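Section 5.1 Outputs to date
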Amino acid sequence: MTEAELGIEIGPHAGPVMVPRSIKMPYDLDQACKLRAAKLGVSQSLYIRSLIERDVAEAGTGEQRPAWVQEVLSVIARHEHDEDRKAS
């Protein structure tokens, strides 16, 4: 059986392993999170991961952010900048 037949990718070219994690949050926060993620054009999971990654990076772990995290943060920053310009 091959990787393609199994629908998986292995080896150094494979993406990072994602660990499913259930989080609990109040309904209002969940709705706000969904709306914000939609405004940014990303999934709710990606939005939450980016917030966690930003917090970990700002806490000074010294590790470099993965490229995908840098890309998500730049998308968020651009959208925040666009919203600031619209408000003024």
